[in-house]
Design goal:
This protein is α/β, with parallel strands linked by helices. The protein contains ten helices and eight strands. The chain has one domain: TIM Barrel (Alpha-Beta Barrel). Helix 2 packs across helix 3.
Length: about 240
Amino acid sequence: MKKRNVKTLEALKGGLIVSCQALDDEPLHSSFIMSRMAKAAEEGDAVGIRANSPEDILEIKKVTSLPVIGIWKQVYPDSKVYITPTESEVDALVSTGVDVIALDATDRLRPGVETLQSFFTRIRKKYPDVLFMADCSTYEDGVRAEYLGFDIVSTTLAGYTDDTKGKALPDLEMLNRLCRDISIPVIAEGGIWEREDLRKAFEAGCFAAVIGTAITRPREITRRYTDVIKEIRDANR
């Protein structure tokens, strides 16, 4: 493994990665705003940033030297895979100099009716020195990802696929099994809201953890509290 990659993994190990993303329909959708979010996360002692799109990544890298895990969410009509779904998105992310590239590593067919194995075999050959993170939904996804040659596995998509909808998050059972059974770093991501969730993730043996919504999406954070008020009102009717 190249020295740059070893340095990136050492920087991420044992710390908190903050996901700084805002979708098109969210008030904070702006590369500039995401760069400020990233800077604030750095000042709060985050060890890395997860970011969506080349534009956001380039702005974030202007203001922080933290390692950046890059994705590019794109929707294609013939696939449910939207996290870095094709070679085009990978190429664009590589051009930013991003430190890690994450992509959907579920067993769902990608755009063009392509399997993960076919897709990643080609990408791994094209970019042998890039760190790739597998966004997984199940334990089996993680085991497969290690076999295919990913460098990192994460629990990002647990609860977000048709087969895993309704799972309690964070999926600590999946995390525990992966940390026990595979040899590459396992990152806990998805559904971490409370400090106790984070504590349990590290007790399970995760390499690092990612928190997004609970830190960087004020609309969703606000709704978490206003929903309580609505419940109280409904109960008192």
